[in-house]
Amino acid sequence: MVRILVDEMRRFELCPTRAQCLTVCQKIVREYPNSFGDKFPSGLLIGGGYTSLLLQVKARVENVNRESSIECHRAKPNTGCKRGPTDIYGCVRFEPQLPSEETADTIETKRQRLVDIYSREGNAGVEKEEADNTEMAQLLINLLLSHFQEHEDGLVLHADVAASSSDVEKTLNLPGSPRLILLG
Predict the structure, then answer these.
(1) How far does Cα 135 stand from its chain's mean position?
(2) Residue 37 has what DSSP assignment?
(3) What is the C-alpha end-to-end distance of the chain, expressed in Å?
(4) Are the CB atoms for 21 and 58 separated by under 8 Å?
(5) Which 3 state secondary structure label does DSSP give 178?
(6) CA neighbours within 13 Å on the CB side: how many for 38?
(7) Which residue has the higher pLDDT, 84 or 74?
């Protein structure tokens, strides 16, 4: 009976999913509980009554599709694109094209700057440079505030460091005009 059932299912779907098999098995057990249902000796159904039938059907589907298991994974059809080369470390593009605003000289200048920072201060030097950049950003914000004669609370809203954008929308009363939202 399971063979016939799986053959009929495969007419519509070569590799039916477990969910599709489950739906079919539930309908069969609902219609024929005495023949196909899982029962205790007292006659009560075990669970939904379809578990053993489902296992048999799914095992049969897997056995029938054994030689064509790759087709059963529902992979997207080949679009004609080949996978690009990678080196052994996973690098896809070893020497990518430079952005339009960069030249070999600007890259070399940045490299020399990083070498100088590391030789003078080690790993902590980079963090110090980033902190200096952060202080510069804060100074620029203060300059804008004084130029437009605004108070800090008129332009800046403070939020928790770990807050996401949806958290900020829920917790803060956001005005209609644009504001800077600073985390921390």
Answers:
(1) 34
(2) -
(3) 66
(4) yes
(5) coil
(6) 13
(7) 84
**Would you kindly state where each structural domain of the chain is located, as residue ranges?**
2-73, 105-150, 151-184
Are 139 and 163 in contact by the 8 Å Cβ rule? The answer is no
**133-153 CB burial, b ≥16 within 10 A, e <16:** eeeeeeeeeeeeeeeeeeeee
- Look up residue 36 and give its two tokens: 């196909």
- The answer to whether the CB of 57 falls within 8 A of the CB of 64 is no
Residues whose CB falls within 8 Å of the CB of residue 129, separated by 6 or more in sequence, listed in order: 117
Amino acid at residue number 113: R
pLDDT in tens, 24-58: 999 998 898 888 888 888 888 788 888 899 999 99
Q: What is the pTM of this model?
A: 0.38
Helix H or strand E segment including 182: strand 180-183
Q: 135, 136, 137, 115: which is closest to 126 by C-alpha?
A: 115
Structure tokens at 40: 């205790």
Structure tokens at 109: 């200048």
Confidence bin at 131 (pLDDT 50/70/90): low
SS (H, E, C) 87-123: CCCCCCCCCCCCCCCCCHHHHHHHHHHHHHHHHHHCH
Tokens 């519509």 locate to 12
Whether 137 and 146 have beta carbons less than 8 Å apart is answered as no
Residue 41, number of CB atoms within 10 A of its CB = 5
